[in-house]
Prior knowledge:
The chain is mainly beta. The chain has helices at 242-251, 256-263; strands spanning 140-149, 155-156, 161-165, 187-191, 197-203, 214-220, 234-239, 283-286, 292-300. The strands form 2 sheets. Strands 1, 2, 5, 8 and 9 form a 5-stranded mixed sheet that branches. It has a 4-stranded antiparallel sheet with strand order 4-3-6-7, with no helix packed on it. Strand 8 (283-286) and strand 9 (292-300) form a beta hairpin. It is globular.
Amino acid sequence: MPPLSSLSPTAAAAQAPAAAASPSTHTATSRRLALSALGSLGVASLWGCGGGSDSTSTDSGSSTDSGSGTGSGTGSGTGTGTGTGTTTTCSVVPEETAGPYPADGSTASNNTYNVLALSGIVRSDIRSSVGSSTQVSGVPLSITITLTNTSASCAALSGYAIYLWHCTQDGNYSVYTSNNIADNYLRGVQATDANGTVTFTTIVPGCYAGRMPHMHLEIYPTLASATKAANKIKTTQLAFPTALLSSIYSSNSGYSASVRNLASMSFATDNVFSDGTTLEMTTMQANTGGGYSASITISIAV
């Protein structure tokens, strides 16, 4: 694997970053599928809070009466009733483009690059290429993804596989930067635990020209099936809070190009997130050790 310091920081002029050696310009045409496309997953077009909501209602009433007539007699009665109910709802995360750099054996990869077939790609720390101890530069980030099922009252989905990939602090993607399948940093697969959760150790992604900072992910029904794009059941992207990323970029010299790129765009002008980020926006905060953590709950219908 070539030294990571040799990676070019040059961002792409449009959709995606340029590769380091003899790059070809890729323009990702991405548009979020219309709500009707979600029908292929067999779900209603729900657009609420991705994490769920609770509703509680309580009612009570009382009455007392008395009366008297000829002779003597009294009567009284009281009654009180209460009721409580809780309902949890979640919505299917939008389907998004995998972009031009998925390296998952798909047509977008020219059927040549497929890191999913590599031994060792199942891992939690994705900061280096498989088998290498050399990590890419960047601000440390731990991202936790929880997967739930809209068809089962937002129950956790255990045993599903999540393939996560994203660009470097320079805005480049592994495999394509060096045109070498062995350079596969910032890519990895994990199976969700009993709580439907996976956590990846990585870096804060950079911002290249034409796109707001993001991560890509594909969901597979099992870890065993996460070997090629043909087996995936969902493709989507994750967004990050702009103000916090702007602060991170400004404070770390390795993200100098990201400062300029981020300042020139917004979610409203991004060709993937322009129709909303409600179900794709992560929650992000600083850690005591100098890095950051992010989390998100996303839902699919199975």
